[in-house]
């Protein structure tokens, strides 16, 4: 059973914002298909009456008081910036946003 | 070899306290050792000599002055430590072994680093790992493989191969690791060292670069069980910056290790997990495991067999949950705020394409594989079948543990199914590499603690024995682990690590 | 631009044939001291990237921690919207890449919002009440601020590059989502405006948001669809993003109804998409179609643990709820006895609080209205300020009024005293004292002034004696002049009559 098609991987790479060459896409398709084939058995045991566990240790209501703490200096903020303009990060044009 | 580097952390700490050695001497001895062997091992990505010596000198000065300040020093003050390069540090680069973060300087310290600074342990530097901790061999580092000190052609385990190799090769008496699916314990097993994955939340994750948030845990790497107990007590406890950190510190770890070291474990119920032995486990690994069980039994432990029927789904659940969280956690690496920005080769130069080419160039194959797999597992139409099912399996595995812990105080298994494999052996088979974590993954899924202790040699390579305990019961691991350590060393007449061969630095130098 | 059309169908014609269905997503920025998941200041207008911690920059290794006050504010909003409060709820990650989103996911809530199943009764201009059902109100975090540079000023299209300020990243938001609103017919635009106005008023009244739409504290996405009259199945909707003034909400709904009708009339289909609102042309343009890119891959936020609300906690918060604005208005109108128009003017002028305080301080409802809607409103207009910002206190009005009633000052002087009070010269009594503004009631002094005036104008005196009482007015000028305007006109008249034996 081929669970993952090359088209799927093209779409996934787009969602994940990773550019991939044709060769990479081909290789990734084969590998993912094998991996998914090997792990898909989880759905066999996952009966509907089994609750999901998202957090291994159940804690609730870990809340913080609304008190201001230490902020970074502008030098620290921009320390690792690939590009910046005075006190802001600079990014190439965004073609279409919301 | 300088005698100071052969000491365990606890022994070295005692010598420093007694004034028989200075911290500067200890740090320098380890820096010398790094200079001598790390060219061959590549355990360190960054060596922090200047700061380490400065901290050592500060500790020495406090000790020399005596008085209340000297009294107040942490027991491990002045004992050097290595830090897995997944944990952020001010003043040293943090790369996660990825090109993406080449040269990145954190403006803040991880909580565990703040604690290490407060206790004045000189930091020797940052250790190598699989990129973003994804791997079981430290072959997936953007900065070259780390080699196993026992055999330079073998992997040191992963992802924390750098920390394990550093400790196994006497470059450092202590190190910090992180364990998402076995990344502390499996390297510990294949390098003949001790490693502990504490209960999820026992040690703050703040400042550990997230791989899979619901599985990640920082823990100690050392050559003795007692050393790990001291280190976990130092780095553990609630952190208001980590919402998932346990509200109260786990206590009595050092005491438990000391009590276990007497070798007295009468009445301790040890459960052998049926599903984590036998098929798939190398003969030599199984043999060492069986010998350890005999020793424990002879020392008064009650050995029972337990069954965890859902563990066979653990690997599958892990390889759905982990990559799902990875795909989200690693989205922040986009070349906007930090990291190496790579422009697309052709126009248009939109931010979307800059992100795409930055991530294409910055991430290695294994990281990309997991991001794409996780994106798939979470995507519309597949969520229920994959991520949703995996979370249910997680519940079933927790239930298996609950049932097993009704019959046993601790559970036991080989830590890894094989000894260290050869470098490059699994290059083209990611699935084969994933199988290395089959025995360590259930603990991460359930949040329970685990320890690996050296269990002897097979093919002249170390074998690890893993103990698992219920959540919050990390002390039980230290008791059982220290007991087995003592029993084995008594039988052998020496520690396992003392049998490690000399590192043939010349062979690697020639290759390179 | 798939089905962009310049054609519009006249609004009334459109709604003769179609029924509109509305839906709103209103984002409310909370005015907590710190952000939703970090202890950075939640402040507007500071220098770029100064209100950020490692968490707000999404640096490697950071973790979020939930702001308790933001949770409580969210519950308060839920209660004020007549919602159920979830006994247990959690956070989820909404995954999408955008440079204003530091982690490239937004921490939000997905299938378990903190508040759900509520309603709001919206009173339209003519008093008709329309119930809007609330689907949910959930907690999430705001994004940073992008400024597009080069190209057409400030527009994303054609920009050369963009600058990012993360001060706003992580500011707590509550997103309020309505159920589909049917049956509004031609009143849809009016209802849209009134609904957003009501939400804004509620969060302002709760004190949980600064509620300034011009600052983006309250932002509205408006969903519109049309279905043929009598149909039951909703049409395809469009979502007009970031309509950020009450007028714009009204106009955007109006425009989309006219545009949808034109598309449908032409036989084409509405494409499900986002639309951009343009204030200058009062129209929308095509944004981004719904696509695969909207696969947000929500999953439970592993770094945050669930929130459990006990009954005690919720009841304690319910106890903090102020009177709902609509009920308060109804009560005040009855208590004060204003006519419909009078009351509406007071509401529109935004001086309900001021009048209420003035009455509480001892003035009658009529006196309070006279001052706030009269002289104070005039001064505010002249100073180009909001009435509330003039700094007039209720005590000042009450004191002015009692000075008038005691005949210490007259209306004209009172208006001067008010201006001096606004200028900060002190209380009305202090000002009257300091500036010697008290009305001259001293009969000796007044008598002297009247005698002088009568002596100077014998012809006027003759006229008065002859029964021409209005001639008394001619004496007022000199009398006022002699008393520097502080004579009480009524008393002057009495004295003249006494002196002439009339
Ligand atoms: Mg929305
Ligand atoms: Zn939202």
UniProtKB/TrEMBL annotation, chain A:
Gene3D superfamilies hit by this protein: Glu-tRNAGln amidotransferase C subunit, N-terminal domain
Family matches, as InterPro entries: Asp/Glu-ADT_sf_sub_c (IPR036113), GatC (IPR003837)
Keyword Protease set for record: no
E.C. designation(s): 6.3.5.-
Family annotation (NCBIfam families): gatC
UniProt similarity note: Belongs to the GatC family.
UniProt-recorded name of the protein: Aspartyl/glutamyl-tRNA(Asn/Gln) amidotransferase subunit C
Gene: gatC
């Amino acid at each position: 059973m081929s669970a993952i098609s090359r088209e799927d991987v093209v779409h996934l790479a787009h969602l994940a914002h990773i550019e991939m060459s044709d060769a990479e896409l081909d290789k990734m398709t084969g590998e993912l298909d094998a991996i998914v084939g090997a792990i898909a058995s989880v759905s066999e045991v996952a009966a509907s009456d089994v609750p999901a566990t998202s957090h291994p240790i159940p804690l609730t209501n870990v809340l913080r008081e609304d008190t201001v703490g230490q902020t970074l200096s502008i030098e620290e903020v921009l320390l690792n910036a690939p590009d910046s303009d005075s006190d802001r990060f600079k990014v190439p044009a965004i073609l279409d946003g919301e | 070899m300088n005698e100071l580097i052969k000491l365990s952390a606890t022994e070295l700490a005692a010598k420093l306290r007694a004034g028989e050695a200075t911290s500067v001497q200890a740090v320098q001895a380890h820096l010398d050792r790094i200079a001598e062997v790390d060219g061959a091992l590549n355990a360190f990505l960054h060596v922090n000599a200047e700061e380490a010596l400065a901290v050592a000198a500060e500790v020495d000065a406090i000790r020399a002055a005596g008085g209340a300040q000297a009294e107040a020093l942490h027991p491990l003050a002045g004992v050097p430590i290595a830090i897995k390069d997944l944990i952020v540090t001010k003043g040293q680069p943090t790369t996660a072994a990825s090109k993406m973060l080449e040269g990145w300087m954190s403006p803040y310290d991880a909580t565990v680093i703040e604690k290490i600074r407060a206790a004045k342990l000189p930091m020797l530097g940052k250790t190598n790992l699989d990129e973003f901790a994804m791997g079981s061999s430290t072959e997936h580092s953007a900065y070259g493989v780390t080699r196993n000190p026992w055999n330079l052609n073998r992997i040191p385990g992963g992802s924390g191969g750098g920390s394990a190799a550093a400790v196994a090769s006497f470059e450092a008496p202590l190190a910090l690791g992180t364990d998402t699916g076995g990344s502390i314990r499996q390297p510990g097993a294949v390098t003949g060292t001790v490693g502990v994955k504490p209960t999820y939340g026992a040690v703050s994750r703040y400042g550990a670069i997230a791989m899979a948030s619901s599985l990640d845990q920082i823990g100690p790497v050392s050559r003795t069980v007692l050393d790990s107990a001291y280190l976990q007590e130092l780095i553990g406890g609630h952190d208001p910056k980590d919402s998932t950190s346990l509200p109260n510190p786990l206590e009595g770890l050092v005491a438990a290790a000391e009590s276990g070291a007497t070798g007295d474990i009468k009445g301790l119920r040890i459960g052998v997990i049926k599903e984590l032995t036998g098929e798939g486990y190398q003969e030599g690994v199984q043999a060492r495991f069986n010998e350890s069980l005999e020793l424990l039994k002879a020392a008064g432990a009650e050995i029972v067999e337990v069954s965890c029927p859902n563990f066979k789904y653990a690997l599958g659940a892990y390889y759905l949950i982990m990559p799902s969280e990875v795909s989200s956690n690693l989205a922040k690496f986009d070349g906007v705020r930090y990291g190496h920005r790579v422009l697309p080769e052709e126009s248009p130069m939109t931010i979307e394409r800059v992100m795409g080419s930055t991530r294409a160039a910055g991430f290695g194959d294994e990281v990309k594989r997991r991001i794409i797999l996780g994106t798939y597992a979470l995507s519309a139409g597949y969520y229920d079948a994959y991520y949703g099912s995996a979370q249910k399996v997680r519940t079933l595995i927790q239930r298996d543990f609950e049932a097993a812990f009704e019959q046993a105080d601790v559970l036991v298994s080989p830590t890894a199914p094989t000894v260290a494999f050869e470098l490059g052996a699994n290059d083209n088979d990611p699935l084969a590499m994933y199988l290395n974590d089959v025995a360590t993954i259930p603990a991460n899924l359930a949040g329970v603690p685990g320890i690996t202790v050296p269990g002897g040699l097979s093919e002249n390579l170390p074998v690890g024995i893993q103990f698992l305990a219920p959540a919050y019961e990390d002390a039980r691991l230290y008791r059982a682990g220290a007991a087995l350590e003592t029993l084995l060393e008594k039988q052998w007449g020496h520690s396992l690590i003392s049998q490690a061969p000399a590192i043939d630095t010349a062979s690697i130098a020639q290759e390179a | 631009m798939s089905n962009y059309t310049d054609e519009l169908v006249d609004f009334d014609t459109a709604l003769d044939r179609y029924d509109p269905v509305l839906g709103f997503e209103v984002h409310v920025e909370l005015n907590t001291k710190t952000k939703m998941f970090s202890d950075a200041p939640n402040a507007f207008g500071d220098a770029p990237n100064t209100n950020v911690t490692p968490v707000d920059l999404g640096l490697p290794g950071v973790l979020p921690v939930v702001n308790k006050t933001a949770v409580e504010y969210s519950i308060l909003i839920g209660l004020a919207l007549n919602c159920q409060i979830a006994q247990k709820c959690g956070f989820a990650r909404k995954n999408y890449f955008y440079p204003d989103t530091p982690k490239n996911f937004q921490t939000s809530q997905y299938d378990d919002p903190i508040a759900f199943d509520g309603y709001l009764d919206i009173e339209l201009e003519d008093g008709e009440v329309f119930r809007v059902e609330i689907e949910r109100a959930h907690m999430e975090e705001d994004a940073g601020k992008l400024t597009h540079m080069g190209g057409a000023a400030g527009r994303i299209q054609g920009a050369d590059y963009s600058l990012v300020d993360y001060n706003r990243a992580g500011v707590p938001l509550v997103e309020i989502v309505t159920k589909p609103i049917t049956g509004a017919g031609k009143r849809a635009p009016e209802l849209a405006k009134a609904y957003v106005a009501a939400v804004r008023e509620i969060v302002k009244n709760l004190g949980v948001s600064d509620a300034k739409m011009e600052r983006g504290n309250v932002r509205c996405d408006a969903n519109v669809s049309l279905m043929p009259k009598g149909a039951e199945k909703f049409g395809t909707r469009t979502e007009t993003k970031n309509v950020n003034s009450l007028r714009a909400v009204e106009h955007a709904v109006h425009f989309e109804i006219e545009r949808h009708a034109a598309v449908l009339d032409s036989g084409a289909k509405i494409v499900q998409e986002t639309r951009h609102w343009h204030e200058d042309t009062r129209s929308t343009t095509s944004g981004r179609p719904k696509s695969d890119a909207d696969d947000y891959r929500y999953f439970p936020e592993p770094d945050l643990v669930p929130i459990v609300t006990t009954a005690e906690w919720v009841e304690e918060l319910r106890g903090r709820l102020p009177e709902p604005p609509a009920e308060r208005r109804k009560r005040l109108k009855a208590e004060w006895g204003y006519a419909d128009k009078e009351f509406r003017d007071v509401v529109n002028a935004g001086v309900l609080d001021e009048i209420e305080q003035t009455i509480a301080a001892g003035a009658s409802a009529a006196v309070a209205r006279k001052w706030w809607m009269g002289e104070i409103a005039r001064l505010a207009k002249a100073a180009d300020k909001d009435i509330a910002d003039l700094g007039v206190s209720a005590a000042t009005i009450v004191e002015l009024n009692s000075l008038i009633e005691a005949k210490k000052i007259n209306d004209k002087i009172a208006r001067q005293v008010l201006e001096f009070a606004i200028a900060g010269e002190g209380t009305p009594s202090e000002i009257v004292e300091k500036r010697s503004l008290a009305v001259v009631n001293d009969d000796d002094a007044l008598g002297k002034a009247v005698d002088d005036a009568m002596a100077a104008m014998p012809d006027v005196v003759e006229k008065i004696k002859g029964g021409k009482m209005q001639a008394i007015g001619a004496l007022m000028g000199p009398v006022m002049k002699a008393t520097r305007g502080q004579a009480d006109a009524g008393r002057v008249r009495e004295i003249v009559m006494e002196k002439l034996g009339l």
